[in-house]
Amino acid sequence: MQLFDRAAISAAVTLDQEALNAVEAGFAALGRGEAVQPPILSMAIEEANGEVDVKTAHIRGFSRFAIKVSPGFFDNPKRGLPSLNGLMMVFSAQTGLVEAVLFDEGYLTMVRTALAGAIAAKYLSRPDSQRVAVLGAGEQARRQVEALRLVRDIKAVDLWARRPQAAHDCAEQLRAQGLEVTVHESVRSACADADIIVTTTPSQQPILSAADLPEGVHVTAMGSDSPEKRELETSVLTRADAFVCDSRAQSERNGELKAFAGSADGAAAGADGEVPFKVFELGRVIAEGQRLRLTPATITVCDLTGTGVQDTAIADFALSRLS
Q1: Distance, CA of 146 to CA of 115 (rounded, Å)
Q2: What gap in Å lies between CA 30 and CA 286, rounded to an integer?
Q3: Which PANTHER family does the UniProt record give (predicted)?
Q4: Domains identified in the chain and CATH numbers
Q5: Residue 195 pLDDT more than 70?
Q6: Residue range 292-312: average pLDDT?
Q7: Which residues contact 17 (CB under 8 A, 6 or more apart)?
Q8: By the 8 A CB rule, do 302 and 53 touch?
Q9: pLDDT given at position 83
Q10: CB neighbours of 47 closer than 8 A, spacing ≥ 6?
Q11: What is the dihedral of CA 158, 162, 164, 168, to 10 degrees?
């Protein structure tokens, strides 16, 4: 068994095209029905404002599979500690023996999450997209923009966050990468000219509404990944010409589709909470070459809750580079 720490992993794995291809291949395998992906095991630790998720998947034909343990303790920044942590255990898919422990402290989750956002934009946004609005100012906000540049010629960023200082700090980091960045005081102002909108917050109340969406925009929502979180008003989902998620079951439990189990903002669900529009899964969009953007004015929304397939794909990729 091999043990790798974050320094070694981050030196070997970056937000690059090969890593994107590896995660995209995992999505496609899921879309073809070539993956076994059990439900997420989640545990809340409410008194510490924390949660722990355990995710795994086996992709047919892969020699390895991974089990990821991912704690998120959201008061940690007040203690000078990171909010996210964790590790991935990698096993042989032939023998079940442990091949490696990737003590990445959440780094590989950051990478595969950012790459998933880029993959969603690759298949759903306008090819000429150059301006992205980012709601939120944590590490994932910056990383989403960096990953988007692998698939779109992003030149300008409009940024909004609840904490103005965090927004300005994030803006300076993005400007250092040669981007034009504007910090906004409202969500609507930030989104007004966007080609792509990315929501990257742990919000428990919707922050984006249909009235904020410009014509032809693509929205990637990646912050809602547990039952109590929500970033999009149901009006965003019903306004979209195409709604896509990484896993419908996960979106209904942890993501934006859970709003239709009992909408708080007045959107009409069908009988027994039935979703009143067609739901696509990103893996099938990729595997089947589904074309959902039919005109430049098409509005698309993708809800990313994070899947075990992504974790196995990035862990396998990381170990191949480390070895």
Answers
A1: 9
A2: 10
A3: KETIMINE REDUCTASE MU-CRYSTALLIN
A4: 2-108+309-322 (3.30.1780.10), 117-307 (3.40.50.720)
A5: yes
A6: 96
A7: 150
A8: no
A9: 84
A10: none
A11: -40
Kindly state the percentage of the chain with pLDDT values over 70: 96
Query: How much is the CA Rg of the chain, to the nearest whole Å?
Result: 19
The secondary structure of 232-300 as a DSSP string is B-HHHHHH-SEEEES-HHHHHHTSGGGGGGS-SS-----GGG--SS-EEEHHHHHHTT-----STT--E
pTM, two decimal places? 0.93
CA max distance for the chain: 55
Helix or strand run (H / E) with residue 169: helix 164-175
Give the torsion sign (CA, 19, 21, 23, 26). Answer: negative
pLDDT of residue 263: 43
Of residues 284, 303, 306, 248, the one with CA closest to residue 34: 284
Query: Tokens 């990035």 label which residue?
Result: 314
Identify whether the C-beta of residue 199 lies closer than 8 Å to the C-beta of residue 221. yes
- Give the E-state strand segments of the chain in sequence order: 2-5, 35-36, 41-45, 50-59, 64-73, 87-92, 98-103, 131-135, 156-160, 180-183, 196-199, 218-221, 242-245, 279-281, 300-303
**CA angle centred on 302, ends 135 and 140, rounded to 5°:** 40
**What does the block give as tokens for 276?**
């009143």
Region 40-48: what's the mean pLDDT?
Answer: 92
**How sure is the predictor about 229, in pLDDT bands with cuts at 50, 70 and 90?**
confident
Neighbours of 211 (CB within 10 A): 12
Here the tokens at position 260 are: 């239709």
88 neighbors 105 (Cβ within 8 angstroms): no
Distance CA 57, CA 94 (A): 14
Number of Cβ within 10 Å of residue 101's Cβ equals 15
Q: Is 211 in a helix, a strand, or coil? A: helix
The mean of the pLDDT values for the chain is 93
Contact 283, 246 (CB under 8 A): yes
Helix axis angle for 308-322 and 17-31, nearest 10°, is 140
User: Where do we find the tokens 């195409």?
Assistant: 242
DSSP, res 223:
S
